[in-house]
Amino acid sequence: MTNSISSIYKSKLDDIDLPLVIQARDQEEKSLEYLLQWISKNRNELESDLLEQGAILFRGFDLNDEWDFENVILAIEKELGETYLGTSPRDKKTKYVHTASELPPHYPIMQHAEMSFLKSPPKKLFFFCKIAPENNGETPITDLRKIYNQLDPKLLSKFENKQVKYLRRYDGPNASRFSLWKTKRWDEMFSSNDPKVVEEKSKQQGFQVDWQENQSVRLVHNMVAVRPHPITGVKAWHNHSQTFHVDSPKLEYWKIFQRQKTIRSFAIAILLSILTFWKKLTVPIDKLDVHTMFGDGSPISKVEITQIMNVFWKNMRIFRWQKGDLLYIDNFTVSHGRLPFKGPREILVAWTD
Ligand SMILES: [Fe+2]
Fold it and tell me: Where are the alpha helices (DSSP H) in 97-207?
């Protein structure tokens, strides 16, 4: 170890202003040991960079698997989260590390702050690229302070005043893991086959629980649309309204098609448009698998969802994963999502409570 412990280079990717990139400048700096020592000596600076930028990418270090990933993030944050009440199906890899999402590759994952529909969402998130996708499959990120500042003020105050109502329906332990509109079962969500555990955990989160046919459960709750940052107090857009709304997958896929001009994207966009039209025609609002409304029960219109999505796509920052990349995100400042892909891709995730 030389005395150049602070020499790791900070930059931005060529064409985008987010994330801040931290990379090694020579062979010695690439090693896991060097990075761990660098983090321990520069923790305060790292913290203030994250507060300001919202996302930091560690690139070019010799990190290979979930154990290296866990090592580095435990050097950054002493305490990591283990409970996951989010909606992506995930597989556990180590005590703190999970696969980011087991959703099939063509599923779109709209921009969201992790678990923003819960009372107390995670403060920080970490992603790790174990296998980089050859094409597409990026994890776009967006500065949520910009969404707050750029949304139409009338629409923003409507959300701030009314909050967001979340309506979700989950199948029971006997159903299959994936279905077209549902992303996981309630036993996966609550890590238990026991309805009493579902009720207990739901009570803690303020979810209204309604058991339905075939062991399915309906969860309804209201949550804020905007949150101030726990340290800086800066307000940011912080909800899943455009992630869970019935019109979102279709609208998102047409945006994706602009970027991924493939037959598959076009076919899925068309299919989603037809299925969404049919679903809205035949399924009553309160029976939808997942949907959002304003907190007073009034609808969030397709026009309003489109407005939100447009501001997201304008501010979204998209970069290609490289094997060994580690992305550090302030979950109160920056959102993330996933673009569809084909072929091998393995992205891992961990978070703080
Ligand atoms: Fe997520």
Answer: 144-150, 153-162, 186-189, 195-205
